[in-house]
Amino acid sequence: MSRLKLVGLAGSYNRPSKTFALVDHIAALASARYGFEKRVHDLADVGPSLGHAQRQTDLDANAAEILQDVVSADVLVIGSPTYKGSYPGLFKHFIDLIDPEQLRAKPILISATGGGDRHALMVEHQLRPLFGFFMAHTLPTAIYASDKDFTDYKVNSEALKQRIGFAIDEIAAFFPTQRLAAAE
Q1: Domains of the chain: which residue ranges?
Q2: DSSP class of 2
Q3: 40: nearest Cα among 103, 109, 132, 100
Q4: In sequence order, what are the beta bridge partners of 114?
Q5: What SS3 state is found at 82?
Q6: What are phi and psi of 84, to 5 degrees?
């Protein structure tokens, strides 16, 4: 029996990236807890063909493989940097290449990073409606992290760690038997 797959997508090109660090941190904890196979990508992994693509078939082989990884995941951890109160354009462009049916009913833990707390509602006002359009199941607890929540690109805030724990708990609603198997 193959393991269920959790895929993280950080909508950032920067390396190192707090967004990637957050997505990877969440994905590692969730995968350890539920026994998921974990993969995490960012837009640098997707590469330059993304900017020229008008449809999935326009992506180069590497980018197409990452997009397929995202749409074939059993659960997604999506993270976006906040740029002027929203997600960056190339992150949205990647999501726009996905057919809505490819994310239908998929559980998604949404997260975002930003310089300060004034962008905290970006997850509710931008990411939740975006994935609602795809008829995906965004988990009730969304994660927002600001610069003060990190030290050297590692999550250091106890309040953030607690919120991440709440969100990871919510994954159990979609995979109750997976949680039991991982606990044994």
Answers
A1: 5-183
A2: P
A3: 109
A4: 146
A5: coil
A6: 50, 45
- Domain 5-183 is classified in which CATH homologous superfamily? Flavodoxin domain (3.40.50.360)
> What is the DSSP secondary-structure string of 129-184?
HHHHHTT-EE-S--EEEEGGGEETTEE--HHHHHHHHHHHHHGGGT-HHHHHHHH-
**Cβ-defined contacts of 156-161 (< 8 Å, 24+):** none
SS3 81: strand
User: Kind of pairing, strands 154-155 and 150-151?
Assistant: antiparallel
In this structure, the number of other CB atoms found within 10 A of the CB of residue 47 comes to 15
CA torsion sign for 164, 4, 24, 87 is negative
**Rounded to the nearest 5°, which phi and psi values hold at 148?**
-70, -10
Nearest to 173 by CA among 101, 123, 127, 105: 105
Residue type at 71?
V
- Count other Cβ atoms within 10 Å, centred on residue 184: 5
pLDDT, tens only, 75-129:
999 999 999 889 999 999 999 999 999 999 999 999 999 998 888 999 999 999 9
